[in-house]
Predict the 3D structure of the following.
Amino acid sequence: MTEETWGQIQQNLLQTVGKNNYVNWIEPLEYSDYDDGVATFLVPTHFMGNWVQRNFGDAILSEITKSGTPVTRLEFAVPNGGPKPQSAPRAARAVTAPQTEETAGAPLDARFRFDSFVVGKPNELAHAAAKRVADGGPVTFNPLFLYGGVGLGKTHLMHAIAWELKEKHPEAKIVYLSAEQFMYRFVQALRDKDMMAFKQLYRSVDVLMVDDVQFIAGKDATQEEFFHTFNALVDSGKQVILSADRAPTEIPGIEDRIVSRLQSGLIADLHPTNYELRLGILQQKVEQYSGQFKNLEISDGVLEFLAHRISTNVRVLEGALMRLFAFGALVGHEITLDLAQDCLSDILRASDRKITVEEIQRKVADHYSIRLSDLIGPKRVRTFARPRQVAMYLAKQLTSRSLPEIGRRFGGRDHTTVMHGVRRIEELQQKDSQIADDLELLRRLLEA
Ligand code: ADP
Ligand code: MG
């Protein structure tokens, strides 16, 4: 990446984050260097670096990736000797601006909309509740409390609600911010002896959304203020939407009166994703990005492979896909299963599901009613050879074993034999629905 490319990327960011955010947070970033997947920027203060990382990190990463630089991380450094004279005033203004309606909330991510949210069994209830609240009719669920593990879509749903409400009610005051930001502003108001304005500001909104409220628990003064704001709003029929990484009763340090107040609204949880949902999300992302990564081909089975193997969180899944895109754009050819495994080995290792080749062999032999010794053995008749290829294919797809390692476990066969088997099944999968069904069933059995 060069300074010039960064200039172009900044222009693209202007489109995604909007003029205000651009002027305050993106324009002041000074590109420093790029090394081994890490892009470094100079910022006038640590606060600013953290803020940009938190609020625009994903957007910046995705724009840099689109420009063809395979970036995995952003770093923000404060130059020795403190702020540079020319960039200081702008940053200072951004950081200590008086708290007004404009600055009461945090920016919304343009990508987090309902139409980009894939619905499946695990998030169906949370999605339905979010949709209902976003209709903006007479307040029904108040507060709405969304909870679930990291990367399951809480922030995405909250932003989606905010976008939709803004469209339907352009005049409504909708404020979204993280609990951490709420606390930061609260402390700032205390310090600036500006509590009246603070209270007024947050009690005059129509919709208040606070993300990751587990952060406030145990921080007594902030929790107290938050509770009053929250009560005042709910009492006057204003919508409040909160999220946390766990159920209210499980947040240590949260006051009982808050918990019981929450229980008068709707509490909806996002369950861990399942295979179908993960595959749906991947397919949607491929569609979403296909315009930006022209001529990018992904072999059959790669998305299924990712959906099987990366089951921890959607953010990691997306990150993996973005890396594949960047890599594919760089090397300029189709993304095969092999390439995917290579380029994502670190992520795959971290979320290894530990399915063994032996397990696959056993299940496949059972499924085709043949003996394990025949599956692994030397006989080449079709009744053994086809199941053997299926097992090799599954071993390649569901484990992180290399071709030679798989060959060794199939009676010491050569890696080219394994490769041939894997290819054969890849082809057959397209033409032969029986094989496709067998594979799907076996995968399910193995995942169970
Ligand atoms: P959380 O706030 O629960 O930690 P996020 O809302 O930030 O998670 O989601 C992490 C990433 O995963 C985001 O990029 C988001 O768009 C994506 N994501 C999560 N769930 C879905 C979904 N159901 N459909 C599409 N994208 C999703
Ligand atoms: Mg979140």
Notes: The longest helix spans residues 46-66. The chain is about 55% helix and 10% strand.
